[in-house]
Amino acid sequence: MNSTSPSLQSEAQRRVENLAALVAMGFDCVEGPVTNESRRVDQGRWKLTQSVPSMGTIVSVSVVHRSCALAEEAIGRSFQEMERLVAVLNRFDDSSALGVLNTEGKLDMAPAELIGLLQTAAEMHRLSGGAFDITVQPVVDLLRESDGAPSPAALVEAITRVDSRRVRVRRRQVRFELDGMGITLDGIAKGFIVDRMAAALATEGVANYLINAGGDIRTAGAKEGGGAWTVAVRDPERPQPSTERVCLHDGAIATSGSYEIYFDRERTWHHLVRSDSGRCRLDSSSVTVCAPSTVQADALATAVFVMGPAAGMRLIEALAGCECLIVSREHRLMRSTGWGGPAFAETRRR
């Protein structure tokens, strides 16, 4: 049996801190496993967990399988898929597909993954009434450069370059219709990558797993004891004890919050900005969404935060298979109708 040594744990923490200091979602390529744990669950099954630094966090994959060797190979395949997609969607790399698009304002022969993600983002934009908008990058850049103190004129100018409807996708060609536009996929790319990692595991015959990419979580099957995978949801301002515990068999969960990235000491300017005004909502501390896929949960968590509690909750209530927990700045909890109900875990089965 292999376990994580204190030296490995400290090294993992050091890498996380270094990555987080660079960018909130740094999309740095994987250097190798930080931890590699394996243990026999019973006579016929093993549980393996591997963790690597990527996307500004630690990405972990846990698998329960009858073969330790096959589980290890499957986990390796999932991380390979992650690395491949990070290279495509890394907006901090000017040579990536997304980097070229942001620099040139156009991209011919775009990778299928980028095209698909842009189409999903466009659907989320429509579904949320414009609250989810991947073209807010000019505003986010302004907030970062001004340390959360943008001039009114600069903010108005940045907003003129924000409009998801002006991103044209035709076959494998992508064009910006406005000069100075830029795309950030931070509110959707990580969920997309986690789903693709899950698909890689399934292709290798793995039926029981949990993938955790810094709170973007995808599960399937059951954990080592045969029950549902358990995910703790916390109030970001009160991290202990857990606010809620969610049980998932086949499903996903993701959290968005103003605590993740902010540009001023008062935390009134953060990365979750409204596309119509460039302003930031201050009524919520975090939004957690359960959905059938991680890309849905990731995007919806961002959309609900930007929409605000009332409108955001109405959106979730109208979507089949989705539930939501909103934590207000005053630490008040708002739950969708089916959140935490007696059949919650079973409704996540497919």
Task: Please explain how this structure is put together.
With 350 residues, the protein is α+β, with helices and mostly antiparallel strands. The protein has a domain at 97-176: T-fold (Orthogonal Bundle), CATH 1.10.3980.10. It contains 10 helices and 14 strands. The strands form 3 sheets. It has a 9-stranded antiparallel β-sheet, sandwiched between helices. Strands 4-6-5 form a 3-stranded antiparallel β-sheet. It is globular, with a radius of gyration of 20 Å.
Outline the fold blueprint.
Blueprint: H1 6-22, E1 35-40, E2 46-54, E3 57-65, H2 68-89, H3 97-104, E4 106-107, H4 112-127, H5 137-145, H6 152-159, E5 167-170, E6 173-176, H7 189-203, E7 209-213, E8 216-220, E9 229-233, E10 244-248, E11 251-257, E12 284-291, H8 294-307, H9 309-317, E13 323-328, E14 333-335, H10 344-347
Antiparallel strand pairs: 1-2, 2-3, 3-7, 4-6, 5-6, 7-8, 8-11, 9-10, 11-12, 12-13, 13-14
CATH topology of the domain at 97-176: T-fold
CATH superfamily (homologous) name of the domain at 97-176: ApbE-like superfamily
Mean pLDDT: 84
Q: Helix and strand succession?
A: HEEEHHEHHHEEHEEEEEEHHEEH
CATH class of the domain at 97-176: Mainly Alpha
Number of helical segments? 10
Report low-confidence residues grouped into runs of 5 or more: 1-31, 345-350
Which structural class best describes the helix and strand composition? alpha+beta
- Helical content class: 25-40%
- Biggest sheet overview: 9 strands, antiparallel
Overall 3D shape: globular
Give the distance, in angstroms, between the N- and C-terminal Cα atoms.
33 Å
Number of strands: 14
